[in-house]
Design brief:
Low-confidence stretches: 6-27, 215-223
Radius of gyration: 28 Å
Distance between the termini: 36 Å
Structural class: alpha+beta
Mean pLDDT: 81
Largest sheet: 7 strands, antiparallel
Strand content: 15-25%
Helix content: 40-55%
Order of helices and strands: HEHEEEEEEEEEHHHHH
Strand order of the largest sheet: 8-3-2-10-5-6-9
Number of strands: 10
Length: 262
């Protein structure tokens, strides 16, 4: 067997081993499913509530409680003898049993481990979807609802990917769900600087509200100009690379001919 044939043979063997190993890893992966599906199949028992306990002092809270950040708590009790990962998607609505409490919007895709025959508790990120209602507390029980409308899901996913789990993100949600304006958001900590960041979120998602209608048009123009600048840069860069490649090719051809002539 030649050296080249040996290399090809060994490469094929390594590829085969890699394929088999990948298949085994995939087979042994921990299964993942939506939390809703797991509940419907009776794989667990669940309790969702607010995480804020008014009896306990916390340094960073609004005057009435906590309605963004890790403001929701979940307890999962497994009914199965194997480990499962449970998914709760961003943009999912959490519906309170008390109508005076805010509907909450999940703002970070959560993966919860359901340990075999065990109970697990943790907190997760969400934001208020109704500015006038009360924030959640540990006394408020919630059930999982459907995904919110497409605009609110876009906001939730943006806040997730940019990790804007703060007042600025919450104000973007309220600007969309309640058409909240600057004067109303001032009551919840907004100022002239923070409100511009909130508007930027809405503009980047092309969601018009009472808060950002005028600025949105300017933003669209700026984005188009920026895209034109980027396209010009790509064109110049591509032309430069093509020129360098052409010159290099010509030089190599000349050298090759000289070697042949010699």
């Amino acid at each position: 067997m030649t050296k080249k044939s040996t290399i090809v043979f060994l490469t094929g063997i390594m590829t085969l081993f890699s394929f088999v190993a990948s298949a085994q890893v995939k087979e042994n992966q921990i299964p993942e499913m939506s939390l809703i599906d797991a509940l419907e199949q009776g794989l667990l028992q669940m309790k969702i509530s607010g995480s804020y306990d008014p009896r306990i002092f916390e340094e960073v809270i609004d005057k009435d409680g906590v309605h963004f950040g890790k403001c929701m708590a979940i307890i999962l009790k497994s009914n199965v003898d194997s480990l499962i990962l449970l998914r709760l998607d961003g943009g999912t609505q959490l519906i309170p049993t008390d109508n005076a409490v805010q509907t909450m919007i999940v703002t970070h895709k959560a993966i919860f481990p359901l340990y075999p025959n065990s109970t697990y508790a943790t907190r997760f990120y969400a934001m208020c979807g109704e500015i006038e209602d009360h924030p959640p507390t540990i006394e408020t029980i919630f059930k999982i609802g459907e995904l919110a409308d497409s605009g609110l899901v876009k906001i939730a996913n943006y806040l997730d990917h940019s990790f804007t789990q703060n007042m600025i993100g919450q104000h973007a949600v309220w600007a969309y769900t309640d058409q909240a304006e600057f004067d109303q958001l001032k009551k919840y900590g907004a100022d002239s600087i923070s409100i511009e960041s909130t508007k930027a979120i809405l503009n980047s998602l092309n969601l018009l509200t009472k808060l950002n209608t005028e600025i949105s048009e300017v933003s669209s123009i700026d984005e188009e100009s920026e895209q034109i600048r980027i396209n010009k840069y790509v064109l110049f860069l591509g032309s430069g690379l093509l020129f360098i490649l052409t010159v290099t090719t010509i030089i190599l051809l000349i050298r090759k001919r000289k070697e042949i002539a010699v």
